[in-house]
Amino acid sequence: VNLKKPQFTSGRLFELEEAEGGFDQFTRSYKTFGVQRQPDNSLFFKEWAPAAEALFLTGDFNGWDKFSHPYTKKDFGKWELILPPKHDKSPAVDHHTKLKVVVHTKEGERLYRISPWAKYVNREEKSVIYDWVHWDPPQPYNVIHPRPAKPTSLRIYEAHVGIASPEGKIASYTNFTNNVLPRIKDLGYNCIQLMAVMEHAYYASFGYQITSFFAASSRYGTPDELKELIDVAHSMGIVVLLDVVHSHASKNTEDGLNHFDGSNSCYFHSPPRGEHKLWDSRLFNYSSWEVLRFLLSNLRWWMEEYRFDGFRFDGVTSMLYHHHGIGSGFSGDYSEYFGLQVDEDSLVYLMLANHILHTLYPDCITVAEDVSGMPALCRPVEEGGLGFDYRLAMAIPDKWIQILKELKDEDWNIGNITHTLTNRRYGEKCIAYAESHDQALVGDKTLAFWLMDKEMYTNMSSLIPMNPIINRGIQLHKMIRLITHGLGGEGYLNFIGNEFGHPEWLDFPREGNNQSYHYARRQFNLVDMDHLRYCQLYAFDRDMNRTEDKYGWLAAPPAYVSAKHEEDKVIVFDRANVVFIFNFHPNKSFQGYRVGVEVPGKYKIKLDSDMVQYGGHGRLDHGTEFFTEAQPFNGPCILNDCRVLLLMDTIVPQCNAHM
C-alpha cells in the first residue's frame, strides 16, 4: 500500500497520524469494533456508547440473560468485553446465532440494540424488527478472480438485486449472478452500480434508509453470495460500485443507529441540526472523531471484505450545505457555493474519504450525486477539490422528461437540448444518463412509457406494422440514448431494464399498493420474446456500447458541435474521430445534406438507428462511402482547412441518428 505523505495540508490527517498511527490503521477499525474472533477463539467485543451507564451482551449463547456478560467501560465512551472459548475450544457464540447489546441509560432505561458494526442482520418472517446475527462461517467464500483494471470509458449499469427478476418476489444475489450478469456483459457495460445493498429495514425505501451500515442486505441472500456476485463480475471484466449512503441514516432505534446509547446524538447531531425534515432521517456529526472512524472504516470494509471497486455517494448535495439543498435553485452563482451555508465538516469528510480511498486504492472510482454543481467537486484533493472522479449529470434526465411531458415534437428546442448535454464544468468528468431509478419511480414513468404509454401493452409485436406512436417512441428512445451517450459526459449510465424500453414504472410493496411486487420487478422475459420489439431496443443499446468500446468517445475530450439547426431539427458533432448526425425532425428527411467535420478523408456508417434489426426502416445504404471536400461551412472558418462531409447518395431520414 502506498502511504505517501499527502500533498496538501489537512488538520484531520495530522490528527489521525498523531492519535491513531495514520489513516490506514484508523480505517481498519472494523477489525477491532463489533465482534472479533481472536486466534485462540475467544471473542472480543467493543462498542462506542458515550452516553450509556452500562452495557451488557445477551443472546442465544447465554440463554438471553440480560446481566451475565457486562462490558467494561474504557476511555472516550468505549466499552469492551472478552468471551473466552468454550471447553471444546470453539467460540462462545456460534455462527448464525442471535445477539443483542443491552444498553442501560443514565435515566434508568434498558434498551436492546444491534451493534452498529454488525456484519449480518436478519428478520424473522413475521417480525418487523431485524436481529443481529453472528456471522462467522466455518468455510468463508474464497475469492478467485482479481479486480479488473479501471475502465477508461465508464459504461454503468445501475441495478437493484431485489427487482432483477420477472417474478413477483424479492430476487436473490444468486439470481443476479446467474441470470443478470451475463446480460450486462452482453450489453457491453463495464461497470455495475449496485443499489440497496447496505441493510435497510424498509424495503420500499429503495435502500436509502440504512439501518446497518456494515451488513449486506440479507433479504437477497448471504454475504458469501454477494461476494460471489462481485467475484463473477470481476471475471467478466466488470467493476462493481456500491451505492453508499453516508448522507443520512434511518430513524429506527431497535435495529438502527438512532439513540444507540440512549442519547439523541451519539453518531448524529442533536436536533434540529441532526434531523432531515424531508427525508425523516438522522444526519451524521462529521466533526466527531468516532463518526469519522465509523464512516471511513465503513468504506474500507466494503472495499476489503466484498471487493467493491468504488462508490456512488448518495445525497452529496444534502451533505454539502446546511440547508441540504431544500428550497435552493442553484443558478450557478459562486456565492451559492462559498459561504456560511456550506457545511465544512461534511466537506472535509468527503475530501478525507476520497483522499484515503484513492491513496489506498489508486483504481478506486468515486461518483458524486450532486445536483448543485459545486465547483471542484471532481478535482483532486491536492488542488483543493473534493476528489471525486465523476459527478452525475442530473440535469440531463430532467430535461428529457420535461421535453416529453411539455413539448410537441415540432417544438423541440435543438439549441436548448445541446446546451443541456454540454453544460458542464471543463475538467470535471460527468456521468450522463437519459434516465435512472429516479425517473422510473412511482409518480413518474420510464422514458419508453412516456413515449408510448398504453400502446406498449398491445402494439409491441414485430409481427404487425408499427403504428405512429410505437414508431415515434422506438426511434426517439434510441436517439435520446445515443445523443446522451455521445454528447452528455465522460461516462454513461443506464438503469436496469431501461435499455430495452421497460414499460410502466417502479413501485415497491407497501401499504398503498397492498404489498404488491407487480411493479418491483424487471421483465427480462420481454426481451427473450423474439416477436416483441423490446429485443430491438436491447440490440441497439448493446451495439451502441460496443461501438463506444471501439472508438472510446467517453474517454475523449468534449465533442465539438458543428451544427444545431432549429428548422431542420438536426444536431451534428465530432468526438473521438467519429461524426454523430441526428435528425430529430418528426416528418422531414434530407438528401445531399452537408455537415462539417474535423478530419478529412472517407467516412462510412458504423451505427445507424434506422437499421431494421433496431426497429428502424432500413433507409440507408451502408455500402455508401462519404468523402470530405475542403471548403468553408457555416460561416467564416477560423481553421486553415475546413472540411465538409457531403452525404451525396443517401438521405438522412426523419427521427434517425447515425455515425
TrEMBL record:
Q: Which SMART domains match?
A: Aamy
Q: Which InterPro entries would you find in this protein's record?
A: A-amylase/branching_C, Branching_enzy, GH, GH13_cat_dom, Glyco_hydro_13_N, Glyco_hydro_b, Ig-like_fold, Ig_E-set
Signal peptide residue numbers: none
Positions of the catalytic residues: D314, E369
SUPFAM superfamilies per UniProt? (Trans)glycosidases, E set domains, Glycosyl hydrolase domain
EC number(s) on record? 2.4.1.18
Q: Which GO terms describe its biological process?
A: glycogen biosynthetic process; nervous system development
One annotated Gene Ontology cellular component of this protein: cytoplasm
GO molecular function term, any single one: hydrolase activity, hydrolyzing O-glycosyl compounds
Q: In which pathway does it act?
A: Glycan biosynthesis
Q: Which reactions fall under this protein's catalytic activity? A: Transfers a segment of a (1->4)-alpha-D-glucan chain to a primary hydroxy group in a similar glucan chain
According to the entry, every stretch annotated as the Glycosyl hydrolase family 13 catalytic domain falls at: 151-533
What is its EC class?
A: transferase
Q: Which UniProt keywords apply?
A: Glycosyltransferase, Transferase
Q: Which domain of life is it from?
A: Eukaryota
Question: Which family does the record claim for this protein?
Answer: Belongs to the glycosyl hydrolase 13 family. GlgB subfamily.
User: Per its record, how is this protein called by name?
Assistant: 1,4-alpha-glucan branching enzyme
Which source organism does the UniProt entry give? Amphiprion ocellaris (Clown anemonefish)
